[in-house]
Amino acid sequence: MLAWYANAPLPLARLMLPIAAAVLLYGGLARGAEPAPRALAGVAACTLIEGSPDAIDPIRRARPFRAAFSALDRAGSAARANKAALGRFERALDRLMGQARRVFHPEDPAALDREAARAFLERYVFGRKAVLRIGEERFEPRPEIATAMALAACRAGEPGVAVRLARRLTGAQDAPLRSLAALLLLDMGRPAEAAELAGSLGEAGFLGPWVGAELTDDPAERRRLHALAARRVSTPDQRTAVAEQRRRHGLAP
Are 155 and 81 in contact (CB under 8 A)? Predict the structure, then answer.
């Protein structure tokens, strides 16, 4: 297989080497019994998710996930309907990863088809409606897809699924999902695991600074991050979260 990459055009070879070293089958997000989370922010963590694709985002019309987005839109806050929508996303992603495995990891390495590989990349990774990207070790869903999946999992009452999804992602653009995962872990009474994500939350948006203020032990840093989150409030739920954090930590308005 690696001989094929050596003979591929240089730009394609560079893009494909990380994939050649990885197992690309997605593998799903195993579920298990999860404790009912408490709402540290004073509101459901689902309401604080950032990065969901808006109604005109072309990724919503990408064929692999079109039906899943429609199901999520119809689900509202209903747990059972969101669980069904999550299942649609997972099945679509599993099919894509299965296709990737057949294309890039055929049983006979000599059967690797350069044109099929190029077509897969152009359609699903680099096209206008790309739904995947190349992560550090494998293909990953684009942030818009991952955020929609996390939203469905959160509303379905399966925060552990959202946490496992966020932990698998490797891009800087996934900081909002890691912030959500840290909040969910705090809500589930798992602060040590939440603290492991502290260095990867970033300070863009509202949730990263808000969660960072929860995780730091430095009073001055907590005040700074809290103030940063407060300046970025744009929804009533975010306003409630800021007020709750201020109350619990005795922070000045």
Answer: no
Residues 240 and 152 in one domain: no
Residues 218 and 144 in one domain: no
Dihedral, 200, 204, 207, 208 alpha carbons, nearest 10:
20
Query: Of 241, 250, 169, 166, which is closest to residue 211 (Cα–Cα)?
Result: 241
Question: Which tokens sit at 83?
Answer: 């669980």
**37, 45 Cβ separation under 8 angstroms:** yes
141-164 pLDDT tens trace: 999 999 999 999 999 999 999 999
Residue type at position 95: R
Q: Is residue 70 domain-shared with residue 165, that is, in the same domain?
A: yes
* Same domain (yes/no): 101, 10: yes
Average pLDDT, the chain: 84
C-alpha distances out from residue 225 to 38, 169, 199, Å = 22, 24, 14
Tokens of 178: 């890691």
Last residue of a domain, one of 132, 148, 170: 170
In the 8-state DSSP scheme, what is residue 70?
H
Q: Which residue has the higher pLDDT, 52 or 6?
A: 52
Query: Do 187 and 45 meet the contact criterion of CB atoms below 8 Å apart?
Result: yes
Cα separation, 163 vs 138, whole angstroms: 18
My answer on whether 182 and 248 are in the same domain is: yes
- For the entire predicted model, the pTM comes to 0.81
The number of folded domains in the chain is 2
Domain enclosing residue 222, as ranges: 178-253
